[in-house]
Design goal:
By secondary structure, the chain is mainly alpha-helical. The protein has 17 helices and four strands. The chain has two domains: 246 residues, no CATH class; 119 residues, abc type-2 transporter like domain (abc type-2 transporter like fold). Strands 2-1-3-4 form a four-stranded mixed β-sheet, with helices on both faces. Strand 1, helix 3 and strand 2 form a beta-alpha-beta unit. Helix 6 crosses helix 7, helix 8 packs antiparallel against helix 12 and helix 11 runs parallel beside helix 16. The radius of gyration is 29 Å and the shape is elongated.
Length: 389
């Protein structure tokens, strides 16, 4: 059996070396995709979103408010207008993402110790931009309001300390854990790079095995393994397991060294989980081909299957807030469980006992792949399953 396994591995290694498609899929495309995503999110946080300030007061104080708003990292005041209608037209045209309206008599109201209303309109069609603008503008305008209250309190004879305490009667001590800088690289890149790896792992495995059926070389493969389907599939997949694991190592270097992602837990656990995830998706690829016996159909279904994992993994929308049917649906993606392990050992630094269940969740997928072996043997053995598109 060992001799047969080595022969199948050697055969597959030669096939990879002779195929530009396999070389591109396993070695070039994953790294290129990683670099593109890292470049896209190199800024880390949202900055300089275009907004308009409608100044109806035209005083020194309204000018100061405009400057402070413009100084907010998330905001860039690209238009200073005197008409709300004009500002709304700019927002509808997509030229600005928010409008700050400074009302008439703003300075007079402030000097008379009254609380003028500053209206803020935010385009929330993009939730990320809308949330960043809401947080940035609220913080800035609240700070301006508190500063004005402090100045008036001091003029009335209070000490600076007393004035500050009066302006802020309740202190809120906020600690942002795991991602204190609101860096989108920690949030999205940590999920997108592994997802890209999953796409190439799954589709690359489907393509490599499916081409045996499409080109009619499946009989040669099973014969070289002496009619042992386990040896044939193991020898077929092991070279790709190694190559995809190397891709994951490169991904880890990008995440940990380039982006500075912290590893508060065990790096060894992360590596084992990545290897197990690769093997799991290879078994699922075998299952897909057994069910369809069609390369094109398996690639199409596999593309949808792998990409949907991001939606249901809980990264972009918390799984705890999903309907029950969506929570159950998320369990059919190994990526969901791997992401739990990765986040646990990088950002949160939890103990190994916390990731036992996600680790065990991989094995039902592997068992399903193993149960597909007899059916896959028929596909590799009988001519009626060969030369299909």
């Amino acid at each position: 059996m060992n001799t047969s396994l080595f022969r199948v591995i050697r055969r597959e290694t030669r096939r990879i070396a002779d195929s530009w498609v396999l070389i591109f899929t396993t070695m070039i495309a994953p790294v290129a995709a990683f670099l593109v995503v890292i470049w896209l999110f190199s800024g880390g946080v949202v900055r300089d979103l275009p907004i308009a300030v409608v100044d109806m007061d035209h005083t020194a104080f309204s000018l100061q408010v405009t400057r402070l708003v413009d100084a907010t990292p998330v905001c860039n005041v690209t238009a200073r207008l005197s008409s709300t209608d004009e500002a709304k037209r700019m927002m509808e045209a997509g030229k600005i993402d928010a409008i700050v309206v400074l009302p008439t008599d703003l300075e007079r109201e402030v000097l008379n110790s009254r609380s003028p209303l500053i209206a803020v309109y935010i385009n929330n069609t993009n939730v990320v931009k809308g949330g960043a603008l809401k947080s940035g503008l609220y913080t800035t305008l609240s700070t301006i309001s508190a500063g004005v209250k402090v100045q008036f309190a001091i003029k009335k004879g209070q000490t600076p300390t007393q004035a500050v305490e009066k302006a802020r009667p309740v202190k809120v001590n906020v600690h942002l854990l795991f991602n204190p800088f609101g860096n989108y690289a920690y949030f999205l890149v940590l999920g997108l790079l592994p997802l890209l790896a999953v796409v190439f792992i799954f589709l690359g495995s489907v393509y490599a095995l499916g081409m045996e059926l499409k080109e009619g070389t499946a009989g040669e493969l099973i014969a070289l393994a002496r009619n042992n389907v386990a040896v044939a599939l193991a020898g077929k997949m092991l070279p790709y397991t190694f190559l995809f694991f190397m891709d994951m190592m490169i991904m880890n270097i990008f995440l940990i060294k380039t982006l500075g992602t912290p590893v508060h837990g065990s790096l060894f656990v992360i590596l084992i989980s990545e290897l197990l995830m690769i093997i799991t998706y290879q078994f699922i690829a075998i299952l897909f081909l057994k069910l369809s016996a069609n390369l094109r159909l398996s690639l199409s279904l596999g593309s949808a299957y792998t990409m949907m994992a991001l939606t249901f993994s809980g990264l972009t929308f918390p799984s705890i807030a999903m309907p029950l049917i969506a929570k159950l649906f998320s369990l059919i993606f190994p990526y969901t469980f791997w992401l739990q392990i990765f986040m646990s050992q990088t950002l949160r630094g939890e103990s190994i006992s916390e990731v036992v269940v996600p680790f065990l969740a991989f094995f039902p997928f592997i068992i399903c792949g193993i149960l597909a072996f007899p059916g896959m043997k028929r596909k590799l053995t009988y001519h009626k399953y060969w030369f299909r598109e």
